[in-house]
C-alpha cells in the first residue's frame, strides 16, 4: 500500500511508502473459548498492525472483548481504557482502568448473519514512552438482526506505557467464539 503525504502546506508532494504485510489469515471453524494472536505475529518486527476480523459468538447478546499479552502473559490487571461511540447517536460507552478493552457498543447476536466485524489499527506496540493504542470501526448485527456501527478506540493506561505488547486475545463477554475469520497485517513505514 503506497501512501502519499503533503509537506510544506501542500506545495511539495513527497512519497512516503508504507507497506502492509499479511502476517495471519485464519479461519475459526469450530468453537473456541477465545482466539489468541501470539508473538509469532505480534513482535518487535512491527510497531503498527491492522486487524480485520469477523467473529460469531456462540451465545446471544454478548460484547466483544480484547486483551493484550506482555512478555507472553495475558494482562489481567485494570490497565485498559476504551471508548465506543455508536453511529446511531446513542450513548457512548467508555471505561478507564478495567480488565479488558470493550470493542462494541450494543449486544452482539449469534443467529445466522449476525456477529461482530471490525477493522482495528494498533500502534505504539513496542514503544517504551507511549502506551499501546488502537483506533477502528466496529460493525455487525445485534440480537434482533439490527445493524450496529461504532467508532472504537482504546489504550493501555499511561502507567503501562513501557509494556511492549506481543499478543492479543479476542473473546466474548460470555460463551465461546463459534466461528469467524481473522487477518492481521504488519505495517512498516
Tell me the strand percentage band.
over 45%
Give helix % range. Answer: under 10%
Uncertain residue ranges:
1-16
Distance between the termini: 10 Å
- The total count of strands amounts to 15
Which sequence of strands runs across the widest sheet?
3-15-5-11-12-13-8-9
Mean pLDDT: 91
Rg computed from alpha carbons, rounded to a whole number of angstroms: 17 Å
Query: What structural class do you assign from the helix and strand content?
Result: mainly beta
Based on Cα principal axes, name the global outline: globular
Sketch the topology as an H/E string, one letter per element. EEEEEEEEEEEEEEE
| Number of H/I helices | 0
Main sheet specs: 8 strands, antiparallel
What does this protein structure show overall?
The chain has strands spanning about 1-5, 10-15, 20-30, 35, 50-55, 65-70, 75, 80-85, 95-100, 100, 115-125, 135-140, 145-155, 165-170, 175-189. β8 (about 80-85) and β9 form a beta hairpin. The chain is globular and about 45 Å long. With about 190 residues, it is mostly beta strands. It contains no helices and 15 strands. Mean pLDDT is about 90; it is low at about 1-15. The strands form 3 sheets. The chain has an 8-stranded antiparallel sheet, with no helix packed on it. Strands 4, 6, 7, 10 and 14 form a 5-stranded antiparallel sheet that branches. Strands 1-2 form a two-stranded antiparallel sheet. The N and C termini lie close together (about 10 Å).
